Amino acid sequence: MHGGHFLVSWNKRVQNRNELIEEREFVRQMTKGWVYKFFASVIILFLMLLSSCIILKPATENVEISLYVSEYNSGPAVDDANVELIKDGRVVDTKRTSDGKVRFSVKLYSGPYLLRISKNGHAKTTIKILNIHSPLVLNTTLRKTKLLPSEQNQNEMNILFDIYTSKNKVSKLLFDGNSIYNIFGLSYIYISAQSTTSNFPVSFMYAKLGNPPGAEYLASPRLFAESNVLEGELDLTPFSGKVYLFIDAYDVNDNRYEVVVPLTVTKLTDLKVNPYVVEADQPAVFAYNLNTTTKYYSTQDSSMPNQSKSSTNLYVKLSWKRWSESMQKSKTDEPDGYVIYKSYDGIKYEKLTVVSSKQDTYYDTSDIKPGSRVWYAIASKYGGIEGPKVFLGSVEPLPMIEITDVSPLDGATNVSLSPTFSWKISGVEKYEGKIKYLYDIWIYDLTVNSGIFHYPIVDVPYFTSDSSIVTINMSSYAWKDLPDAKLQPGKPYEWAPELIAVMWNDNENNSLSLSVNCDYNFKISPVVIAPEKYYLFVTGNK
């Protein structure tokens, strides 16, 4: 009895001990899992709090809304435009643009706001800002009306949009209590937007991250649609922290409506990066002052009347080597983007924009003026970490040039069969000794239906001179399809300098500045620019 009782008791103790061990192991595993989950939750919460700057940015802090208004992309600044800052349907501040600029100081997270920009003879621009989580720079347009004058230009516009985690549109992102979209760990977002109007239909829509659509010229990573519906992916790779999403709509009378959406992008980044020190091209900064008009969009509606031609089209192109093309590819880490900085004094640099690692150029059209030097720098970007800031160069854009003292004049008669063509390039006298004058000449035979034309046959693509006074003696050159370098007697011809440009190759500041009055044959300009005038003359007998 005692032995059996002992055996039963011993078996129960063993069973109890095994159950106790299993219970302890279960508790240990459960505790371990909950600890992991707890710390993971704490880390994620901390990152979200940090990224939304609830800790770092008290709501009492003031930030600036900076607005630059131009007539069109890379066009002249619009002065004396009326800008209203509206909050809860009430105008809280009104300013007028000077050199195209106004600034408003507001509290962080104090939105939403509405900006209304107007000027007599111009279409209207309305910008809806959902909230302010960081300084906001707005490059916008105020175009002259196409169809109806401004007093008859009434069109209520709005943009409705959704942001999804992928193009299948299954998971839609929602904003927080401050109307801010917090994005964690995504490489891209999918935008679905639709614009509505009360009068004129919408002709174009755009969407862009980082800066307003159209702030870049020729190349721009943005969404575009020729309708009132816009959908597509936007790459988040270059961005982290606070960034704004811009969604734009233009109606057929060039009214503009824009929604500014605050985002906070959070990434988990390896802090042990070997950053790429960006290699600048030689030269890396190019200023173009072109005698032509550049629009936001490349296509035109042929039924719409054309705008009057403006001689202002000024922008700066920046150029650098991508990491994949650099000499550092084998010893540095590939960045996820580049941060571009701009300065107006060469000392204080402000962040201009962030671009993708796939880009090696950027076009700056904001606040560029002839005769005013601007400086640029660039840094590689790894999530929220930046590599060393590298000086790209500085440039002073040249004024627009023109020609005077033309000979032979328009309507000239009894012109020599071997004439001398001459003109003077003016407008850049203060840069004498630094610049080169570039030019070319073509002559058209007006009596031949096939359109025969003549130009000097030389070994260079165009003429280059240190002098602003140009003289081309016809007898000094062989001319295309012109025997003996002589014109026929008693015949009408037209002539024009089909390239008129000035170039400043500023090696010291790693830049090139160009002023192009015309370039009909695509010699140096990125766009074709026709001569402003052709000169008709009739030859004599000698």
TrEMBL record:
Annotated protein name in UniProt: Carboxypeptidase regulatory-like domain-containing protein
Keywords, comma-separated and alphabetical: Membrane, Transmembrane, Transmembrane helix
Transmembrane spans: 34-57
